[in-house]
Amino acid sequence: MKYQNNATKVRRLILISIAQAFYLGQLIEQIDRIPIERFPKENKGLLRCCIYKERAIVKQRIMSALGFGVEEDDELTSLAAYAKRALKRAKPVKGAILSVLDIACSGCVSSRYLITNACRGCMARPCTLNCPKQAISVVNGQSVIDYDLCVNCGRCAQVCPYKAIIKVPVPCEEACPVDAIHKDDSGKAVIDFTKCISCGQCMVACPFGAVMEKSHFIDVLQHLANADKKEQTIVAMVAPAIAGNQFAGNLNQIAAALKLLGFTRVVEVAGGADITAKVEAEEFSERMKQGDKFMTTSCCPAYAEAVAKHIPELQPMISTAKTPMHYTAEMIKNSAADAITVFVGPCIAKRKEAENNKNIDYVLTFEELDALFAARNINVTECEASELENHPSDAGRGFATTCGVTEALLDATHKDVPIHTELIDGLTKQTVKDLKRYAKNPDGCNFNFLEVMACEGGCVGGPCAIGKLQSARRAIRKIAQKQ
Predict the structure, then answer these.
(1) With CB atoms counted within 10 Å of each terminal CB, which end of the chain scores lower, N or C?
(2) If pLDDT is split at 50, 70 and 90, which confidence band does 345 have?
(3) Given 3.40.950.10, 3.40.50.1360, 3.30.420.130, 3.20.14.10, which CATH number is that of 219-480?
């Protein structure tokens, strides 16, 4: 799995425990025991001060998996009570997608530069000479930083011949491309949702697993369990990234495994990507003929949110084409209005997009799907092949990687319109600055089509992808290049 570390492992184990209890019909009875089972009295492998804090953190992780923000926990309400509320609700609660487990947050010290014992107190002393604030002095033969003067410019680290000066980051703050996460008065992480674009990079970056997404996990389980009773059609809309070695077995075996879980139909969102590419290509040709300087892609919801909140001047350049998920869900609802649509992918921002789209009922991540397979003891490689719907082009499946959207557009664009492409491979603090620069000076851009992906590597690099990035990219590229 991608990001194989203890934080990811714990998330997965909790999801499996919830699903197993649900399938046994004992969710209400067993859910309050999960924290105790995770950390029994004799447990010696504690990461924190005591088992009681560990159990409290597991409780908040379960709350998040049930779709609740930990901010609303009063510490007196049992997990069984939360589970009952989750099972009774008709729809997930709208609002912020991410939630910070304050008791799991370590309260990292502010980002700063640190002089290590590799410092040799050299005669050249470029660190002292290049510091604009004279914050560095030499004491007993070693350089020392006066943090009252230091402005974190990093020039000392750049010039040190021994690389003895390192930056000690705050991982979540460093990862956020739009500075939406900061410390409160107690030193704990807080997300500013007026800035947050739901990209999930802080969740991936936090080494304490203190940032969690509010899930649709229990809602989807409910529908799968009641499908036969209510004679419902439940459609799994699988993202193009699923072809990138996310699960063992081929696409037809994954479709069979999804149907074993209870999904009635399995539809490839890559078919919707073909529509997005066609619409974007036509729009690109029209814009270039009318004299626009450039156009950018529209399929990444985290990027669209970043533009809306942080780069509004770029809004006129974004394509008006809808996302592949939108077109796929629209097609399903047009043919079966009562169908329950569940997008399955590596992206957290898709939950925010789903909130604003009446045709998309739920979003399930690859991590969550993997936990469901584990809870039901489904081995994908042992499943007999089952048909997928929506038969996309290879280019549509290529949408999941960087350059994939561009290549699909190149195939669909009228050849009489010259196209010069540029790529933003992952939103970072720097690439957000680049986007602002492009918007302010479009005449200075040497491209007329800009592909933007919030995650490095494309959707296969999403925060809830479980395949290794390079392997996933190779698998997708191999499919896309068949055409």
Answers:
(1) C
(2) very high
(3) 3.40.950.10
235 sits in which H/E element = strand 234-238
The predicted-structure confidence for 34-56, as pLDDT tens digits, reads as follows 999 988 887 766 777 788 888 99
Give tens-digit pLDDT for 134-149.
999 999 999 999 999 9
The two tokens of residue 36 are 């105790």
The span from the CA of 57 to the CA of 46, in Å, is 12
* Measured distance CA(397)–CA(443) in Å, rounded: 33
Cα–Cα distances in angstroms (integers) from residue 37 to residues 55, 158, 347, 367, 375, in the given order = 9, 49, 30, 22, 17
**79 contact partners, CB below 8 Å, separation of at least 6:** 31, 32, 34, 35, 59, 62, 63, 66
Give the contacts of 123 (CB within 8 A, at least 6 positions apart).
Answer: none
d(CA 173, CA 192): 12
What architecture (CATH level 2) is domain 112-168?
Answer: 2-Layer Sandwich (3.30)
- Domain boundaries in the chain? 6-107+179-215, 112-168, 219-480
The pTM for the full model equals 0.92
pLDDT band at 335 (very low <50, low <70, confident <90, very high): very high
Each residue of 112-131: pLDDT tens digit? 999 999 999 999 999 999 99
Residues 165 and 127: their CA atoms lie apart, in Å, by 9
Which letter, b or e, does each residue of 368-381 get, where b requires 16 or more Cβ atoms within 10 Å of its Cβ?
A: bbbbbbbbeeeebe
Which of the 8 DSSP states describes residue 389? B
Phi, psi of 210 (to 5 degrees): -85, -10
- Of the candidates 395, 374, 360, the one whose C-alpha atom is nearest the C-alpha of residue 243 is 395
* pLDDT > 90 in the chain, percent: 76
Average pLDDT rounded to a whole number, residues 269-288: 94
Sign of CA dihedral 475, 478, 482, 483: positive
Q: Which two tokens stand for residue 229?
A: 């009773």
Helix or strand or coil: residue 184?
Answer: coil
* Residue 425 Ramachandran class (φ > 0 left, ψ -120 to 50 alpha, else beta): beta
454-457 long-range contacts, CB within 8 A, separation 24+: 454/177, 454/197, 454/199, 454/300, 454/302, 454/303, 454/306, 454/349, 454/426, 454/427, 455/199, 455/201, 455/302, 455/347, 455/426, 455/427, 456/402, 456/425, 456/426, 457/401, 457/402, 457/425, 457/426
**How many CB atoms are closer than 10 A to CB 432?**
19
Q: At what angle do helices 6-23 and 217-230 cross, to 10 degrees?
A: 30
